[in-house]
Amino acid sequence: MRNFEYYNPVKIVFGKGTIGELSGLISKDKKILLAYGGGSIKKNGVYDQVIDALKGYSVVEFAGIGPNPQYDTCMRAVKVVKDEKIDFILSVGGGSVLDAVKFIAAATMFEGPEPWDILTKSAEIKSAVPLGCVLTLPATGSEMNTNAVISRKETGEKLAFSSQQVYPVFSILDPETTYSLPVKQVTNGVVDAYVHVMEQYMTYDVNSPVQDRFAEGLLKTLIEEGQKVMQEPQNYEVRANIMWAATMALNGLIGQGVEQDWATHMIGHELTALYNIDHARTLAIVMPAVWKHQRESKGAKLAQYARRVWDVQTSDEDEAVDAAIQKTIDFFRSLDVPTTLGDVDLTPADCAKAVEQLRERGAKLGERGVISAKEVEEIFVLAA
Amino acid sequence: MRNFEYYNPVKIVFGKGTIGELSGLISKDKKILLAYGGGSIKKNGVYDQVIDALKGYSVVEFAGIGPNPQYDTCMRAVKVVKDEKIDFILSVGGGSVLDAVKFIAAATMFEGPEPWDILTKSAEIKSAVPLGCVLTLPATGSEMNTNAVISRKETGEKLAFSSQQVYPVFSILDPETTYSLPVKQVTNGVVDAYVHVMEQYMTYDVNSPVQDRFAEGLLKTLIEEGQKVMQEPQNYEVRANIMWAATMALNGLIGQGVEQDWATHMIGHELTALYNIDHARTLAIVMPAVWKHQRESKGAKLAQYARRVWDVQTSDEDEAVDAAIQKTIDFFRSLDVPTTLGDVDLTPADCAKAVEQLRERGAKLGERGVISAKEVEEIFVLAA
């Protein structure tokens, strides 16, 4: 195990009917920006619950934060936060709204000339407006971590930043808020969380059995509950278990002291930025191809995964690796998630622009830093 | 899964050579009480490392905090903290020193007439002196939780309290500090952590697969690494894995949203208070007897544990339960830890005083609250 520092002060309020606890979590004198997306929270009753819980507070609303939240939208919100002298930003929605809120919180206090530098130049974030979250879509783990991803349409960029300044003060996770999600969003969320675990697990062994077994436990849970949610979309326990697994998948814990990969995410972000393919779907397409390409380097861990997560019994390492890759693809397909470029009507040649972008940035991806643009090109061929 | 709230802001600094980071964790203007135990840290070099890291700070020392830390000792330290106007208390040692420091931190700021009320009457802790920890013995989990246990010799009491006010600001976990521990303390620590997991796991099913699998992962790790540490006491990776598993065993995470037991601890505390038997050893004696007594109520989970942790293959539930109990006893014995009252030269009749104490307090132990003094008497017979 490598040395590590772990610090995660997010207060998680988990369970049925917990939105009502908002007023105990934000002090009464705060002026709140209520940030949300396209209005689904108005249809499923979450908006009403939040407004009800915030009676007596001064609240300004900012709606219209879409998937792959845009820099321009965030900067419009920054103006509102400044003009209205907002003290606290409450994100109500999924990971996209929360990622936008994290960026808005940091950009408001940013001292440099251009907050975009936070994303392109890792400009230092010295402080941020305090923020909290009511989560309605389990997937990104943003509710309990320091990360956010922001996009810019005009340049086709999708970039991440990370800072302890943007930890939510609290996150309310009420699984009932997820009942009204379209099936596609639920299964995308399961795949997203699954791949988050993999980015921290499917690397090489550094003798970290606690982290490995926690990761395997999350994978098994996502497999079982992911399949159940297709059959029983209104089952509270299933929703609750997916929600908690997705949070634990990317709150930093399972990634402490181990090698991490993230090549799949970096490559997937390019496909989303260029072709607007759902984030989770890009991951399901790219990850199996990364594994095929890195088969030798990841072989031992792929075999461990096959045996411990999929109960593959063979003693043959090659067979175990084959099973690991195929069972993962089969699992994604069982959730009606595409697993090849062909499934989303793309060819490897269509991805040349993505390769170019990664070449320009001098990408050296993966836990060993050996996946550069040339290898990404080969990975797209394997994903055909 | 039950509703829950989880909040754990302890900063963990984990790994080789991390004691040197102390000066980055406490601001320079703080006056520090350096609290430790019987002097083993002076023999193994930890004291020197700490003193070296604290150059430039104003430091007052308080030594002599023993196992099962005593109320009187703590109250002497409270006087020092007040007289010396201490701003920060640094615990250097195992769980006993840290538990004492937590109590000292709370008792110093306690507004009532008698800090003992914190333990007997759950008197409210409104604030505490900030505290941090350099851990030298993995076992209690105190380094990342809100709990502490304090004893009082004159009354034969050993009582616990819990408050978010006594979360350590940071805990430094350097596995190398554990090399010099006597084998008995290492194996006691493994058993203590193992039983901590069990108190949160071996109850009844509330459909919480993430928590179950995390618990099972910790148990498997403690079994494997616990056996390795007997063979290879100077293996860094083994020490590191035990240390991290022990922290995760009782930092609150695996206990969120599930039923908890703690009967074994409550009964074990009585044996320690009366007969001065090591805490972990009381647990290893009591827990199998609790399981035998609660066999019906815990049957399904015992069988799950047998299958998932010990790879027991039988489809017969009774056989699986038998195996669960026997394999646990065998594991403890493989660590040279006693598992019966006879092993520590006691009979069930010798435990009458413990039963009496629990009767006086109106004990209703276990996840269903059905273990009262009468049942404890039966449990002692099963532990004979």
How does this model look, in words?
2 copies of one chain form a homodimer. The first copy, chain A, is α/β, with parallel strands linked by helices and 384 residues long. The first copy, chain A, has helices at residues 22-25, 40-43, 46-53, 71-83, 95-109, 117-120, 183-201, 209-231, 236-249, 263-275, 279-293, 295-310, 317-334, 352-360, 373-382; strands at residues 4-14, 31-35, 58-62, 88-93, 131-135, 147-152, 157-162, 170-173. In chain A, helix 7 packs parallel to helix 11 (279-293). At the A-B interface, strand 1, helix 8 and helix 9 of A face strand 1, helix 8 and helix 9 of B. Strand 1 (4-14) of chain A pairs antiparallel with strand 1 of chain B, so a sheet runs across the interface.
Query: Residue share in helices of chain A?
Result: 40-55%
Helices of chain A, by number, come to 15
Are there runs of chain A of 5+ residues with pLDDT below 50, and where?
A: none
Strand numbers in spatial order across the main sheet of chain A: 1-8-5-4-2-3
Q: Which CATH first-tier class of the largest domain in chain A would you pick?
A: Mainly Alpha
How far apart are the termini of chain A?
Answer: 36 Å
How many discrete structural domains of chain A? 2
- The CATH homologous superfamily of the largest domain in chain A is called Dehydroquinate synthase-like - alpha domain
Quaternary state of this entry equals homodimer
- The total of beta strands of chain A comes to 8
Please trace the helix and strand order of chain A, writing H or E for each element.
Answer: EHEHHEHEHHEEEEHHHHHHHHH
Range of strand content of chain A = 5-15%
CATH architecture of the largest domain in chain A: Up-down Bundle
Say what the CATH topology of the largest domain in chain A is.
Dehydroquinate synthase-like, alpha domain
C-alpha Rg of chain A (nearest Å): 20 Å
- Compute the average pLDDT of chain A: 96
Give the largest interface. A-B, 41 and 41 residues
